[in-house]
Structure formats: C-alpha cells, structure tokens
# Entry
Amino acid sequence: MSSNPPAQPAPNWTEMWMNLLLALAPLAAGPYALVFAPLLALVMATIDVIKGALAQTGELTPEEVATFDAWLAERKASPEWQVRI
Amino acid sequence: MRHMKAGIAIMALLVAVLFTACATVAPGNDPVLVNAERNLNVAVKSLDALFATDYENWQVIDPAIPGWKAAVNALRIAAPPVIDAADGSIKAYRAALALYRVDPTQITQEQLNGLATDLGTKIVAAVNLGKQAMAVIAQWNGGGK
# Structure
C-alpha cells in the first residue's frame, strides 16, 4: 500500500525576490555601495517586471481598460443611448 | 452613403461575434478574463451600433418596421445597468486574480472560482443584450444598401 508524498507548497517568487532585496539593502548603503547598489537596482527592476507580468492577467493593459471605460462613459452619456421619446 | 457605412459596420460586428469564441488566448493571460473582456467589448459595440443606427435613421426605420422603436428603447433602458454590472465584475475578478497570483494565501481558489462564476453570469447577460441588439438591427437592411 503506497501513500502519496506530501504536497510541496508552490514557491512564491515575489517573496523570494523581496527577501533578496532586503538582504542587499544594508550592503548597498554601506561601504560596498559601489558594488551592491547596481545589484540592488537590478533586483528592484526584476521585482517590477514580475509585478507587471502578474498584473497582466487579461488581454487588455491597464491603459486599454481606462480607454475602454472612458469610451463607454462617453457613449452612455451620448444622445444615441438615451431613450427616444 | 451613411446607410452603406452602417451596413459595413453591422457586418463587421457579426464577424466579430462569430470569431470571438474561436480566438486564442496568449500564454499568461487568464482565459476567463480574456473571454469576458472580448465578449463585453462585442456586446457593447453591438448595442452602440444599434443605438447609433436608430439615432441617425429613425425617421426612415420607424414607419417601415413595426415595434422597432419599442425594441430599441427597451434595450436603451436595460443595457446600462447590465453593462456596468459586467464591467464591475470583470474588474473584481481581475483584481482578485492579480492578488491570487502575487500571494495565493490572501485569496482562496474557491473565492476566485466564485468571482469567475459571478463574472460568467453577468457576461452572459451582457452578451444576450448584444445578441438582441443584433437581432433588432438585422430587421433593417440599411435602407436597401
């Protein structure tokens, strides 16, 4: 009789990158700033990329969503959309 | 000329309605959300085409098609709250999905599924209104063009 192995929790990539950022932060402010500051900037940029990819959940970008909402509001307020007497 | 433009726009919408369900979803994009965005867009464009056609041509259409005005006005009353509900549901699902992807401990899969079900219901209501708009507009042949 076999038993299933315990399920491994999925890695949280954002949390891992944040931990790396926190580990690098004190070094980037100290005497090794010349080396660690660019590395810190690279980690921060990577986090931004991850967050951006996670926010892109649908087909429309946030800008396209805003454009559609503005267009819809304009159309709903237009005379074409009002009940014709 | 205006009639011909309306006819071309209606045909383009019909083609869009036919192909919305067949289009692919890019990797990383959520199929529920992508299909909801596409279907709401087509439904709103269908309703807008009907309202614009009526606004520009009602003097010609009203005498020719009995019940046209009542049908269009009924959709003018019914559409805005249904569209707003579907749009709001899309926003709620999009926000929840982003949260789930960033930190799955903050929202459960069951909660996300519940929002997806709600989204599906509201999108179907919007799509049905869009189909009604297309059925109404199909009664008019664009003034013979």
Remarks:
- The interface with chain B takes residues 10, 12, 14-15, 51, 53-60, 68-69, 72, 75-76, 79-84 of chain A (CB under 8 Å).
- The two ends of chain A are 77 Å apart (CA to CA).
- The mean pLDDT of chain A is 78.
- The longest helix of chain A spans residues 33-55.
